[in-house]
Every structure is written in structure tokens, then in C-alpha cells.
């Protein structure tokens, strides 16, 4: 008995086109636009307004900051949005003119703390060894002292006034800048391109100024904005305690101090300048956060 074996013809596979390139398979996506933060825009706008107050107070102040206009302790009104103080001076005008003292003092404090801190941090991170240990021990001592206590100690030694108060706050800011810059310099110093610069015959200061510092200072911008807000708050605290400007010159801390006993009867004397101070500090912190995230 024979078994017939049938051989089925092979079915040819259907012809398939080669896969299309990746660029043809999926349409290219448009680059995503960065979302604009409303809070960041408001922070920039408010800081710009306060800076304009400090530079051109006469353009914004409706009245004199020194002369009485109406009866004292008048509440907020269209004519006097911030009301008047005990002697009848317009509070909004005093806040606007006081911006110059507050912002100037903060600029001096941040300038002193930033410049000295960057120098100390650069030396400690670049040289290393005993020099780094000595510098960082000084930084640790400064960080161990509360900032307000250190500022009070310095301002008592130097005397009252905006400049002395700013120098006192600036001394307290040195440690933060020095620690940050030292940390960044140590990281950049270990990179390959810095080692290559040394191997190619680069001198210490040339490599430091050309390669190390330019790549180490970006985080300092965020700290500058943060310290600027903190300096305004610290200066206002010193002014509140009587270590700032002398009356009748306006300064935010002193303006708030003059209304501290009137919160029940005339809340606007201290509350509205305090709100302006709070918004300035919050705006500086928001800008610092944005600059830190953009690294």
C-alpha cells in the first residue's frame, strides 16, 4: 500500500515596503514653549516698581514725605491711599521715599557680602589644604552666630545710620556666599577641562579667572536675589529697633515702628508699610527661586 505525499506549493510572502524613516513615521513635534509664570512676572513688576520709587520718588509720591498735609491719623482714602501718620504726613509718600534708604542699604549689604564671600570662597576652593581649612572655620563661626545678633553687634560698634546698618548686615552675608562659592569651585576644579588647562601649562590665576570662576558663579545670582530680600528685611528690623536712619527721614522699619502702638486705633500706619515690605521680600525670593531653577 502506497501513501501519496502531496507537496503543497510554497506561498510567496507578500511584498512589504521597507520601513519608512523615523522622520516620516511620526510628525515632528514643535518645540515646547516655556510656560510663563504669573507669579514671576508679578515679582519682576513689583521689584521694578519699588526700584523706580527709589530712583525717582518725586514722580510717584503724591505729597511731601516730611510736611504734614492734613490732620493726623486719617484712614486710607482716594486722596491718601495709605492714610496719614500721627502728625498728618502722607504714609504712601513716606513709603515711596523710604524705598531709597531700604534698597540702597540692601545693595550695600549684598555687595559687601557677595564680593568678600566670593573672594574667600574662591581662595578656599582653589588653594585647598590649610588655607581652605582656615577659611571654612571662619565661615563656620559666622554661620554659628544668628544673623540678627551679628548685625546688632556690628551696628552697635559702628553706630547707627543706613550705611553702618548695611555694613552690619553685609558682614553676616559673607559666610553664605563663601560656602556656596567654595563648593562650586571645588566641583569645577575637578573637571577634565580644568585639569587639561593645568597640563597645557596654564598658570593658577589664569585658570582660576578663565575657567573656574566663570563656571562657578551662576548659582551666586540666585543667592544674590535671596540675600537682597533678606537684607531688606534685616535692615528694616534694625530700623524698627532704632538703629537705622534718624527721624524724620523715612525708612520702612522706622515707619512700621512708629505705628506699632496704634494698631488698634490706626492699623494702616504700620500694616500697609509692612505689607509693602512683605511683598518686596516675597518677590525677591520668587526671583531667586526662578534663577535657581534655570541653572
From TrEMBL:
UniProt-annotated stretches for the region Disordered: 1-29
Name of the protein: ABC transporter permease
Subcellular location(s) per record: Cell membrane
Any one GO CC term of the record: plasma membrane
Species name: Candidatus Microbacterium stercoravium
PANTHER family attached to this UniProt entry: D,D-DIPEPTIDE TRANSPORT SYSTEM PERMEASE PROTEIN DDPC-RELATED (PTHR43386:SF1), OLIGOPEPTIDE TRANSPORT SYSTEM PERMEASE PROTEIN APPC (PTHR43386)
Main location: membrane
ABC transmembrane type-1 domain boundaries: 99-288
Pfam families xref list: BPD_transp_1
GO biological process: transmembrane transport
Alphabetized UniProt keyword annotations: Cell membrane, Membrane, Transmembrane, Transmembrane helix, Transport
Membrane topology listed for this record: Multi-pass membrane protein
Stored Gene3D superfamilies: MetI-like (1.10.3720.10)
PROSITE patterns noted in UniProt: ABC_TM1
Amino acid at each position: 500500500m502506497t501513501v501519496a505525499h502531496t507537496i503543497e506549493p510554497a506561498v510567496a510572502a507578500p511584498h512589504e515596503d521597507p520601513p519608512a524613516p523615523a522622520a516620516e513615521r511620526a510628525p515632528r513635534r514643535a518645540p515646547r514653549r516655556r510656560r510663563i509664570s504669573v507669579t514671576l512676572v508679578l515679582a519682576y513688576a513689583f521689584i521694578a516698581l519699588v526700584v523706580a520709587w527709589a530712583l525717582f520718588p518725586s514722580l510717584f509720591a503724591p505729597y511731601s514725605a516730611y510736611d504734614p498735609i492734613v490732620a493726623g491719623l486719617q484712614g486710607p482714602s482716594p486722596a491718601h491711599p495709605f492714610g496719614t501718620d500721627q502728625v498728618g504726613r502722607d504714609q504712601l509718600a513716606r513709603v515711596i521715599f523710604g524705598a531709597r534708604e531700604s534698597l540702597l542699604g540692601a545693595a550695600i549689604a549684598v555687595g559687601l557680602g557677595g564680593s568678600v564671600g566670593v573672594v574667600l570662597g574662591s581662595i578656599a576652593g582653589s588653594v585647598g589644604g590649610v588655607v581652605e581649612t582656615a577659611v571654612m572655620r571662619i565661615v563656620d563661626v559666622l554661620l554659628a552666630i544668628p544673623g540678627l545678633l551679628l548685625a546688632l553687634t556690628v551696628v552697635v560698634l559702628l553706630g547707627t545710620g543706613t550705611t553702618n546698618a548695611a555694613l552690619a548686615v553685609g558682614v553676616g552675608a559673607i559666610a553664605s556666599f563663601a560656602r556656596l562659592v567654595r563648593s562650586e569651585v571645588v566641583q569645577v576644579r575637578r573637571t577634565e577641562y580644568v585639569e587639561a588647562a593645568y597640563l597645557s601649562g596654564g598658570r593658577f590665576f589664569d585658570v582660576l579667572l578663565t575657567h573656574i570662576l566663570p563656571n562657578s558663579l551662576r548659582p551666586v545670582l540666585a543667592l544674590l536675589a535671596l540675600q537682597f530680600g533678606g537684607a531688606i528685611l534685616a535692615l528694616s528690623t534694625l530700623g524698627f529697633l532704632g538703629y537705622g536712619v534718624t527721624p524724620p527721614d523715612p525708612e520702612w522699619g522706622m515707619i512700621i515702628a512708629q505705628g506699632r502702638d496704634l494698631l488698634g486705633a490706626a492699623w494702616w500706619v504700620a500694616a500697609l508699610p509692612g505689607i509693602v515690605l512683605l511683598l518686596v521680600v516675597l518677590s525677591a525670593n520668587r526671583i531667586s527661586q526662578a534663577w535657581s531653577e534655570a541653572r
